[in-house]
Design a protein that fits this description.
This protein is of the alpha/beta class and 217 residues long. 28% of the residues lie in helices and 12% in strands. The chain is globular, with a radius of gyration of 16 Å. The protein starts with a helix and ends with a helix.
């Protein structure tokens, strides 16, 4: 399946999300300072990089891999919008290629996090306060955190123990931050978003195991 179609959430006309890129919304997503090329004083010091990294992420073990500012809507959630859901995705790409897609301003797509199959590494691409373009439904975009998981829906070998454990810990921490119930009514698959034509995370995603891990994280 074409990755552009699978990840084509917030910008696709078929989903009715074109208002995301109209002038009316342009003021809501200014270019962020995250990608400022000017190195601050002291940035040669490794301890500076560690502190700077921590200041950029919402999840303590995540690595900051910022999406292009053209690929999400800057916001001030949960003040601007409540955060009620976590949407589970499968990338249909490698971890590295998914991050690269989010960093390409022409793609008009992003999720907040990407979880690696091999070791459960987590990249944060969009701050949680901002609206990622991942659900294909503007209302759900505004009220959710999107988590992409490296793999393909028809290849369950990608859904490793490391991936499940790391993602569950991430989801649990998001739920704790925003008071989201740790259940299937609030932790949903992309295919469960109203109007979605996607199938991820697919039939091999072990929901019972995942929700159990989230609740024990």
């Amino acid at each position: 399946m074409d990755r552009r179609r699978l990840l084509w959430g917030a910008a696709a006309a078929a989903t009715g999300a074109l208002p995301l890129i109209t002038p009316a919304h342009a003021a809501d997503r200014p270019r962020q300072p995250d990608g400022d090329a000017t190195a601050p004083r002291g940035s040669h010091d490794p301890s500076f990089h560690s502190a700077h990294q921590r200041s950029e992420v919402d999840h303590p073990t995540a690595q900051w891999r910022p999406a292009a500012s053209e690929n999400y809507t800057a916001s001030s959630r949960p003040t601007s919008y409540p955060i009620d859901f976590i949407v589970i995705h499968v990338t249909q790409e490698t971890f590295a290629d998914t991050v690269e897609i989010f960093q390409n301003p022409a793609k008009q797509v992003s999720a907040h996090y990407v979880v690696a199959s091999s070791d459960g590494s987590v990249a944060q691409c969009v701050r949680e306060r901002n609206v990622g373009w991942h659900a294909g439904n503007w209302d759900y975009n505004t009220r959710s955190i999107g988590i992409e998981h490296e793999g393909w829906v028809d290849q369950p070998a990608y859904f490793t123990h490391a991936l499940y454990e790391s993602s569950a810990a991430l989801t649990a921490s998001i739920c704790d931050r925003y008071g989201i119930p740790k259940d299937r009514a609030h932790i949903i698959g992309h295919h469960e978003v109203p109007g979605a034509d996607h199938t991820d995370p697919g039939p091999f995603w072990d929901w019972q195991r995942y929700i159990r891990l989230v609740n024990f994280a």
